[in-house]
Amino acid sequence: MSRFLTDEITQLKIIVEQLELCCDFINETSVTKHRVAIILLDNISEIILQRLCSRAIEFDDFTKWIWPQKYPEAKKININRFFDKKIKVVTKEKKLSKQITEVISIGHKYRNAICHRDSYNPAVIGSIAKVLFIAVTDLFTKTSCGIEAAAIGGYKESFEWLVPYGIKETYIDFPRVSKIISKKLENKIHFDLSALIVVFCNDLEQRIRNIKSQIDKELPWKTPEGINHILKWFEFQEKNPDLEDKLSMEYRKYIYKIAKNKPVNIEPAQLKQIEEKFKREYHAKVDEYRQNISYSAIFRIEGKIKKMAKGKSTVEVLSQYAMLDETLSKLEYYLDLAAREWDRIVQREIDLSRGK
Asked: Of 119, 178, 190, 114, whose CA–CA distance to 151 is shortest?
């Protein structure tokens, strides 16, 4: 066996240890531990999905001489690279429920925000971790940890790390063991749908109040038209991050030479024309752009919060929250940019008035 591969017992033990850690971390009040729990849970789900996908691909390679391939080379590469592609394969092969696949997909997005962008909401992160934990333990049970063998036996002694789960046999029946472990760990997580709804609704409602307060106290734009204009401006910048650099390249080349006291064969009036030209072109592109996020999104979210409050399932409530959270996060982000930009403008005017 390659030194990079592990046997089935070790594979199971590693996943169980991670689930135990997640369970302990979720039951604490530490936001940091909730963050770690989400990262670990996402890792567990991806490992299990990868095991199942690898088997599906291997079987497909074996049978390609009998019937057409499901997973040609280009698809294999995407499956190995992308989380959503793994979910698609496993859902098809194992017929996993939406309750599992949608939650772990949403959990993966929150994990990416936590891990790659240091972005998370302390008000809801513990609740998201609980929902993700239940989905991942269900995935663990439904797939027997992603292990191919149904059972392994012939050992002299039982496994000490499984004794706390009441498993004292000298063989491992993976489907049975997975169910026993999942049930015991899930019983340690205190969770109910009504509490989840309260946490999610309170978070969204408070953030909407904060946005309205920010507009009232920090921004000069008070009308929906004015707010939409500034939202459009910053959304366009995010969608086209390099356009200003491209359009202003000629102008900046002259500025760089001037800054270094190098000779510039251009009149000030011509330089001004070049500057105005790139600004006109940029503004024209902004005017043409059709924005996605507008101030009216706040009122739509307020209506959908009421709908979310009537949710009948965990996956329904989490899915609705994730969608509203994404829109609200964009609003918060663009308005924060606007507030900082306005603060710089005000500070610059103050400095000019003081002769700085």
From this structure: 178
**Contact (Cβ atoms closer than 8 angstroms) between residue 31 and residue 129:** no
- Which tens digit of pLDDT belongs to each residue from 248-298? 999 999 999 888 888 878 888 999 999 999 999 999 999 999 999 999 999
Confirm if 19 and 136 have CB atoms less than 8 A apart.
Answer: yes
**Residue (of 105, 126, 99) closest to 34 by Cα position:** 126
Query: pLDDT digits over 106-135, tens only?
Result: 999 999 999 988 888 999 999 999 999 999
Nearest by Cα to 332 from 176, 140, 124, 121: 121
Phi, psi of 167 (to 5 degrees): -100, 105
Which pLDDT score is estimated for 4?
A: 46
Residue 174: count of CB within 10 angstroms of its CB: 21
What is the CA 77 to chain-centroid distance, rounded? 22
State how far the Cα of 199 lies from the Cα of 300, in Å rounded to an integer: 19
Can you give the C-alpha Rg of the chain in angstroms? 27
Residue keyed to tokens 């929906």: 224
Structure-token pair, residue 176: 């049975």
**Cα torsion 37, 23, 316, 91: sign:** positive
Quick one: three-class SS letters along the chain? CCCCCCCHHHHHHHHHHHHHHHHHHHCCCCHHHHHHHHHHHHHHHHHHHHHHHHHHHHHHHHHCCCCCCCCCHHHHHHHHHCHHHHHHHHHHHHCCCHHHHHHHHHHHHHHHHHHHHCCCCCCCHHHHHHHHHHHHHHHHHHCHHHCCCCEECCCCCCCHHHHHHCCCCCCEEHHHHHHHHHHHHHCCCCCCHHHHHHHHHHHHHHHHHHHHHHHHHHCCCCCHHHHHHHHHHHHHHHHCCCHHHHHCHHHHHHHHHHHCCCCCCCCHHHHHHHHHHHHHHHHHHHHHCCCCCCCCHHHHHHHHHHHHCCCCCHHHHHHHHHHHHHHHHHHHHHHHHHHHHHHHHHHHHHHHHCCC
Nearest residue to 204 via CA among 307, 116, 109 = 307
